## 1
Amino acid sequence: MTLMEILTQVLEVIAALAAAPLFLGWVNQCRAWLQNRSAPSLWLPYRGIRKLFHKDAVIAESASPLFRIAPYIVFGAMAVAAAIIPSMGTRLPLTTAADAIALVGLLATARVFMSLAAMDVGTAFGTLGARREMMVGFLAEPALLMVIFVASLISATTALPAITEHLATQAPALYPSLAFTAIAFTMVLLAENARIPIDNPATHLELTMIHEAMLLEYSARHLALMEWAAALKLFNYACIGFALFIPWGVSTGADSPAALLASIPLLAVKLAMAGAGLALIETVSAKLRVFRVPEFLTAAFLLAVLGLLVHLLLRA
Amino acid sequence: MALLALWGLLGLAGLLRPRNIGLVARTLFPLGALCGVTLAVVAAVSLAAVPERAVLPIGLPDLPVHLRLYTLSRFFLFLLGSASAGISVFAAGYFRRGEGTVPGLMCLQYHLFLASMGLVLLADDAYTFMVAWETMALSSYFLVTTQHGIPEIRRAGFLYLLMAHIGAIAILLAFGVMQGGSWQFTFDAMRSAHLAPSWAAAAFLLALLGFGAKAGLVPMHVWLPEAHPAAPSPVSALMSGVMLKTAVYGVLRVVFDLLGQSQWWWGLVPLALGLFSAIYGVVFAAVQTDMKRLLAYSSIENIGIIFTALGLAIVFHGVGMPSLEALALIALLYHSLNHAFIKSLLFLGTGAVLHSTGERNLGRLGGLIHRMPWVAWLTLVGTLAMAGLPPLNGFVSEWLLLQSFLFAQEVPRAFVNMLLPMGAAIVALAAALAGYVMVKFFGVIFLGQPREPALAHAHDAGGLERIGLAWLALGCFALGLLPSHVIGALRLVSAQLSGHTLPSPAAPWWLLVPLPDRQASYSALVFFVAIVTVVLVTILAVGYFYHRRVRRAAPWDCGFARLDARMQDTAEGFGQPIRNIFQSFFAIERELPTPFDRKPRYRIAVADRIWSVLYEPLGPLVQKVANTFAWLQQGRIATYLLYSFMTLVVLLALVL
């Protein structure tokens, strides 16, 4: 564990925490442009979070301590997840402690706590949101695991940085299996981050919302942490996607500050493109009815399994 | 061994003053727990010691009782001792009032059950094994039917007894095949018998059937969701947490020890059954409305995962991949231990809820975290562990299993090496569904608002019950946070079992690296510390930079003012997405209201399809066969004596 590695680690977490709301702001801006609206400021998510932190927290009378601790746990889980994902460099000290399967487990922990907190107050919308979130989760989680399995079968490891290093350093090759899994991963990303066509982040229409329904009872600092965690989650998913499918540009050497510095603008470019792509997908697709969500996610799961099968058949 | 005898004695002591609850509950059960702890410590310390044998001259002449204590037995004795310690302490607080059976008799049954499970693990000949196995079945039958006044409980008990005996017959036949013509029923003789491959396969399948019936492998699972809710909670905990593992022990013993040979394709049978059980169990768990039935189905899922690992181990053994075989075996043993702790904890949690509210139906619970904080928070540990979330213990064994699946593509059998990683998809799906089930379980019971006014009088568990729950929760943490220590011990078991083990790691003690030549590592401790640090730092930072002010108000719920507890999601509602997605699994019976109903009623009943497809046709079949032979039954003693005489003559003619 060298100083450089620790520095990379710290830099990654801080960058994720700082840039996540910006990424969300960028997606919102692109979406507004594509929809011919005047775009909100890039910094709006920051302002929202800051405003919420200053407010007094109002908590329902029937809330238990679980309700109050959950935002911190969800936020903490997302921050630790950001430390595991190799967004800039692959030499991260924390990643020996947690591989890609543990990462999926960590995301599941955040989801479970969020759902439990939503059930805690005992409102109709909270439990409805929790149920739908868990429904999305139990279909998306195995699909994500399958996506990761394909990548780890290709590189014979489940450690995420090692996968990235393997994929980034070898000669560019065409992996049909990764093509299938990339589609599956995109579908999982949309579902897990409550984007259209699964959920609409801008809606408060009661009968269709999933993620927002779970946050209805939160206010002030708890809500701020939850929203920040949601932005972090989107950022993390984007970085998982880069680590698996466009790993080039990540610093793979042990001690090269230059490579690390060079990876930062590259990450920014990748994020900008991913954000624009996400906005495009959200603009051209319509929201699915909740009943159709299982079909969408089953398709993602089957695509990932298909990717696995293709890998096993072609060894590529 | 002395400890097992002590359990027996404790049970008998209960008979002395059967109606004195103070003596039985407050003294004998904690003593039993102490025995359990001692047993666990002794077994853990001597895990690597040389096998010990004993031949006790009791029983029939020329048929002494052979006992053998070796690493595999010691591991399962550890499981028995450590899990039962928590359960016994809990039971000491639980059996406050006489429920059905008098406490003294119950104490005897309970401790006899414990002692017979211990004896199953020690037995070294088929007779002793079967006697202990049957004692186990019978004592647990009586425990299940503790409240024998209720007809449904009597029915559940009968079904359990029936399935236990079908299993026992299969095991008996398996032993009969394995003695291989030597007519010696000691396990030593079976080890040295050379069976033809076809006979060995027959013995394997019979053993799988017999032990699978005890373990609750689909389609032999039907007794589990009936018997577990019927039994008092400590008994359910013991049956689900520990007794199912004796069946796992039995299969391991037969396959890796007694048979001494195996074909790789044998593994596909437990693998397929295990994967099917895992999905089947968890899907059914998600639609249950009775909290103990939900846990029973979740046990089926976990047994499925254990048998999946068993199948993998046999496949790896057959194709000669020793380190992966050891990995799969360790995943199996680890998951058995985890499940013993988690499921006992959850069943005891439901017991505390049941005692305090008298309700098993999820639709009439809710909000108990306010009334029963101890039970709720300790059960939350079990809930998270069962959902397979890091850094608790359930995650570690699933992680190990997924790792062994991932490397199965190197199996040198075309087609199989492609199908095996597909199994990982099913395991992943089952694990994710387990999260769904556990959110439903915890959320509906403990969170939200109380669905019945009576719940306002619920009281928290007593001191002894809290100790029992805390012991098991602590076990979940310890097993989760120190995986490399646990695996260090399991390595000895797998070495003894298969002759192979994982290479010892070069990694530091806090890091789990199962196979050094692969890059896969996990450290629960670092992980846990990282999350706790970030959470604490966040809490402090938010408090420091901003403020900690909190106001309490009525729930917001989009501005709806007349919110009541009936508007929360029910257990049925929470299961609705699963019912829709996995429609073909269930036999669903719906009763929908029409717009013209005066008193609209909505009823939905979900039944097990296997019951109607497999078991219901069996009844008439048996009846038909019985009818054809009915003419033999004349009802006169003279006729029966004639039958006996003729049988004797025929037998003599055969022998002489």
Note: Residues 628-655 of chain B form one domain.
## 2
Amino acid sequence: MASVPNEKLIERALALIVESEIAAHDAAMAARLALARWRSRSAEHAAAAQEARRRWDALGGMAAQLRGLRK
Amino acid sequence: MRDLVQELVAHYADLRRQLTRDLRDPHYAADIAQSSFERVYAHALKMKGGDIRIDAAPESTQGSGIESPRALLFRVARNLCVDDARRRKVAQDWVGTHFNSGSRQVVPSCEYIAAQQQVLARVVETLEKLPPRRREVFLLFRAYGHTRAEIAQQLKITEMAVAKHLLRAAIDCSRVFARLRSELIEQPVISTRPGFDASFAEDFA
């Protein structure tokens, strides 16, 4: 099993992902650049960003499922 | 490098629009567009001088010529879509092998359903414990696709407050996965389903 990225790093990556998703226009692009720079710092940062993205995507899938249940 | 970034920024919106049309899922399209952007940007960082015209895509297995950043961005996105579809197929096959007791069942096994429900139940439990406004912000954004401005208007709060609520909710829900992972190390279970990132299966295996 691959080593699990540090949880603090995952949460930092998640914060950058959320910012890049929720910001508008230029701010969103700045956030995406910040995320790209952050993840290129080290292999651990890249792994944390990948894990954060997985979680964010999974939460999106579940949120969509909850929306279906609400109907 | 500044020129390249500006050019990528200029084409990013086009890419996202096309992916949204092709994939029919704005969040998935945003994820692919973001990943494509990051890969091209990371590739450009490795290039000396950040020339606008850069070599073929880092992921590419075909072609070795020079192409424009726009073409590169779109090609990386296409490759990511293909890779993702391949990964999902592999994960589905894996689940089929491990949870169908060797027989070709059409319906998912009890263990498979239980694993899905366990993750969803934990996330729902977490959402229920959130302050109502925070929960609402999360669902409006992640389930209904509203923008920050729309949510702010609907809930009569500032856009900054929307961002803070969303981040807090995302982190709280994210911790469900960390807790489950530590539990599942002792009792391995796989969880994957449509709309749920199948790559989690790798961690739970």
Note: The CA atoms of residues 31 and 37 of chain A lie 10 Å apart.
